[in-house]
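Encode chain A's predicted structure.
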Amino acid sequence: MDMREYQLLAQETDRDPSHEGEGLIVPLLGLAGEVGTLLADYKKKLRDRETYRLFKEDVAEELGDILWYVANVATKFDLDLADIAQFNLEKTRARWLGGEKEGSGCYLLLDSEFPSNEQLPRQFSVHFAQKLDGRTATVSLTREGQIIGNRLTDNAYEDDGYRFHDVFHLSYAALLGWSPVMRKLMGCKRRSQPKVDEVEDGGRASVIEEGISAYVFSYAKEHDFLNNVRALDDELLRTIKKLVASFEVRTRSPAEWEQAILIGYEVWRQMRTNQGGIVHADLEKRTLVYAAT
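Encoded structure for chain A:
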């Protein structure tokens, strides 16, 4: 039996098919009540252990009742249960399994169709060097012996290591294939297509990326800079997805963003501990590795 067939058949047993008033509130309350009953059954299982012999049968019955109410509520809101199930699978797979379509066989970099000089370098290393000027620490970046960007401080009253935050941009580049900030610093903007250069590689995209970096940093600061953290808050990832909804990186899944952030902070923590170092990025292998100088 498929979901649509079940929803239609379940509707035949609805005693009040109206879409408002008691016709709606009753199934909503019923759904809550059946979930409570399921929890009560589990409590009995914990209490009575092996003497509760009908546990699986009772759980199956309660799940069936929950399914009926879910189908009924979907109908009352003019929703298709099969569409709901499909959307939920796509959402959960994107969150926990990554974003590659089943059977695609490869990871497509966002700038793969552009000339090589307009592509983010597939493998590169960036050296972070710290310099002390009195009590102020500044960090400069060099790649292949050339300085990229400006010297950075924490821009804060306290030493929180944000001067090393370009690590996060490198992580977005390596793990997501996206970083308007690094693309500009490395001189590989996509000028052959002016609109792409303006939208994807322009100031607005860079501001969004910097905003994400700052937003995640404030979250990480409250969670020991993600030390021993294996999963990020779903709301954090949903907010990031909203921020990048109009850019090419919208194709990257929450799971991919989570990996980029966690790996970025792993490298950043090592960088901060050693007050500098080298970051090796490989966009094809999707790796970001720290090395001490």
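Residues 100-105 have pLDDT under 50 and may be disordered.
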